[in-house]
Amino acid sequence: MSLLDAAREVRDAAYAPYSRFKVGAAVRGTSGRIYRGCNVENVAYPEGTCAEAGAIAAMVAAGETELTEVAVIAASPSPVPPCGGCRQKLAEFGRGDTPVTLATTDGATLHTTIGELLPGRFDAGHMDGAE
Ligand code: THU
């Protein structure tokens, strides 16, 4: 199964009663295994979590801390862009050139990278010199 198909499949499980905007995400670990996540909203709105965060949590829980590929899908007019927080979360476990496929349920896709999504990112090197 392709990574995008995995994201499409898990999107059905999204819990989005407030926004009605279901999102599915899948990441591939260096082992080749696929990890999936969907958005999980909450009546206390800020407590909701994004699909990308769920997929990353599944990967880390399985013992992997490096991802090689990302796919995200939603019923959006244009391929769904990850939020700022998810860009930082993806950058933690991927590289600048890690491929990211953004998709709509209508079949439109946009191919990008973690580096393009988050240029000038904050990384561990910026903490050099901390006292
Ligand atoms: N959402 C995601 O899960 N991932 C994204 O990349 C964009 C936004 C979710 C959060 C919330 O449940 C809903 O979409 C509307 O913002």
The CATH topology corresponds to: Cytidine Deaminase, domain 2
Rg, Å, rounded: 15 Å
Q: Write down the domain tally.
A: 1
Distance between the amino and carboxyl termini? 48 Å
- Superfamily at the CATH H level? Cytidine Deaminase, domain 2
Shape by Cα distribution: globular
Pick out its properties.
131 residues, alpha+beta, Cytidine Deaminase, domain 2, five-stranded mixed β-sheet, 4 helices, binds tetrahydrodeoxyuridine
TL;DR?
This protein is of the alpha+beta class.
What does this structure look like?
With 131 residues, this protein is α+β, with helices and mostly antiparallel strands. The chain has a single domain, classed as Cytidine Deaminase, domain 2. It contains four helices and five strands; from the N terminus they run αββαβαββα. 35% of the residues are buried. The structure holds tetrahydrodeoxyuridine.
Which SSEs are present, and which pair or pack?
Blueprint: H1 3-11, E1 23-29, E2 34-38, H2 51-61, E3 67-74, H3 84-93, E4 99-104, E5 109-113, H4 114-117
Parallel strand pairs: 3-4
Antiparallel strand pairs: 1-2, 1-3, 4-5
The structure holds tetrahydrodeoxyuridine.
